[in-house]
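Risk register update: the risk of archive-format incompatibility is retired. Evidence:
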Amino acid sequence: MNSATHLIPGIRAFRPFLPAKEFEISLRFYQAIGFDTYPLGDTLSELSLGTHAFLLQGYYVREWAENTMMHVLVNDAQAWWQHLDSLDLAHRFGVPPPAAPRVEPWGLTVAYVIDPSGVLWHFAEVTKQP
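Archived output:
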């Protein structure tokens, strides 16, 4: 048995910190996608989609940012990709266009988007079997 078992009911959230090379641009990027934002300081905000959240901070190290990935398990990766693609993120924020969903060797169907700091987001669903 895990020695932390008695602590687990006390956990309210896991909220990773993500980097922002240019905080205001990253904040607008995530707001465009649909995240709600809650300022916590001049260069720190909680961003959430429903009950799921992360903390965006005005701190940036290229190697860290470009090696950070966020995995979002969704019901419909195609719908997420259509939403992301419709936002013209590449033109508005200078990021690569979102990548259309594809079945990955590990069994998930994944659409990809990269934020203005280089963080790679996976919008993934369990691949539907024919």
